[in-house]
Amino acid sequence: MSQQPPLFPLDVYHLAFQTPAALDPHLPTIPSDALFASLAAAWGRAQGSAQAEALWWEPFRAGRPPFLLTSAFPYAGWVRFYPWPPASRWLWPPQQRDAVGSHPELASARFFSAGILAQALQGKDPTPLLVGPEARALQGGLLRLSAQELAEKSRLPGEQTELWRPTADGRVRFGPVVGLWLGVWWLQSGPKTLADGTPWRTAWKQALVAWLRDNPWGPARCVRTGDTGEPCPVLIQPILPKPGPGLVYLLSRAAPEPGSPVEPVAGHPVLGGIVPRWDAGSLLRVRQPLVGRVVETEAGPVYGYGLPLPWPE
Asked: Do 10 and 183 meet the contact criterion of CB atoms below 8 Å apart?
């Protein structure tokens, strides 16, 4: 009997954009490194000082992050979508991958649902949900989910399969129950306060609220259920398996330390820059936990950490 891996809670926020968002209509995501840098800048603006922003970066530069972020990915209603791996066969159990044939209907897929993720993490055959009678597609095949998720969780009316439309100026206009979600993993080993004594969870909420009002992608709000009194409460908290040595699947961009024992098995390399980075959806083999690092770019510092999930191999 295989041993159950340790688990961790992921705080999930659903963001609804109030105007057409400055996103790629073919791949509407916000990469985690750019998202993190933008949140740090929002915190500095909210506090009215460059020193506050420097304090935000301090533990991440020191290799003691209080939390890790996912990149931001699409959602529809209560269905969250995750980045597609470089090859579809990686969604099948290890013993089936070599025999998985060509599936032309999956050629345009870029995201799969939380239900399909659960099947993959458990090493179950996803054929019925991906190419079988229970499979469904949205946005011209860009997103894949199960018929049950579409009917019971997507909150999409009737036979609607379009989640967003490009605008004339190249932005994305999301539908009424569609937007981007992001997740936060609070690390038990990380510091609980900034150097000035501000609790990190307080700083996070204040930075997020400031970011929603003023960010490069467009004004947004948090989706809420009930009146919690908070401007941006956690919407849902799925419990996910903690990664260990072995094959991992990335929910955010990773910039491994030079010389670290990391082998890209099926990677989405991030183009540009002198530091190798791997995008969300990549599969890496690691012999020790991934360690994030701050990378200096022409646009300023970014933090590449690669929030990983263990992947069956």
From this structure: yes
